[in-house]
Amino acid sequence: MAAAGGSGADTESDDEREPEGPPGESWYLAACQRYGATPISHVLRHMAGPELTVRHRGLGPQCAKALALYLMVNTSIIKLNLSDNWLQGEGAAAIAEMLKENCYISAVDLSDNKLGVEGAKAFSAMLLENTTIVSLQLSGNEFDDHAAKYLADALKANNKVEILDLSYNMLGDKAGEVLGMAIAENMGLKELKISWNHFCSQGAAALAKGLGANIYLKVLDVSYNGFDNSGAAALGEALKTNNVLEELNISNNRISVEGALRFALGLKENKTLKNLNMTRNPMQSEGCFGVLKALQANSDTSVEILDLPDIPVNKEFADLCDAVKILYPNLLIRHGGNTMLQRKRQSKVELQA
Asked: pLDDT band for position 8 (50/70/90)?
């Protein structure tokens, strides 16, 4: 009797025992049972493929834990998209722990999951160990200046992630300072999106300083922030020394004529930038003229696309466009057009009709 009792004490419950056989449906169902989660039919249908996308399903933390437990042993999935599932920090922690063990998943999208500071902390710890992930989408997760500290720590230590999206968060000037230092030290990122945040002049200057020291980043999107003129000037200084960046989006950043002219000073010396987007900045025709004049003066410029589509320009700018296109025939310039010329042409057409 005693032996039987001892045997019963050592026996795992059905919820804790790992299922037999290779990882598959039985493993996932057992994980769901353990965490009291409802199995997702979409997961069951796609668990053998290279990509698992489960979006807008409201999974929550418990379903995330069950899925993470299964993915711990899955070797076929290399792309994971769980965006917009209300995972919160608790669910993010489970996914992060899984990614410490899983060495097959290389692309992760956890956008719009309310991860917050707890999620940022969990993913930072994961990125200190993971060497497989190259693309990480974390937009819309309520990351603030406090969360930025953890994100910066990860950027300093992890050189494997090449694409990082932190857009649509609440990162402000303090975040700009710590992230700027991290960008300067990072040796892996090739594309960084930090649009739709709260970076203003001070944070923008810190980010720009980091860009100036970085020698790997090729694509940077800081659109829909508050860089203002001082931030634009700092970016101009960064472009003087940065010889790697190829695409820069600084649209909708409250950059006026003054900021555009100070930014243009960097364009006079930069040799690598190919695509520049300055849409929806109050820089007027004078600011646009200064930017284009800088490109005209730089015989080593690589700019192929200059986007200014929402900014009306005058005849002086239109004439400069014609001259620059002769000098650089492959340069595409998109601007708001000359309203006076357009009205004259419209009137002429109406008279002829």
From this structure: very low
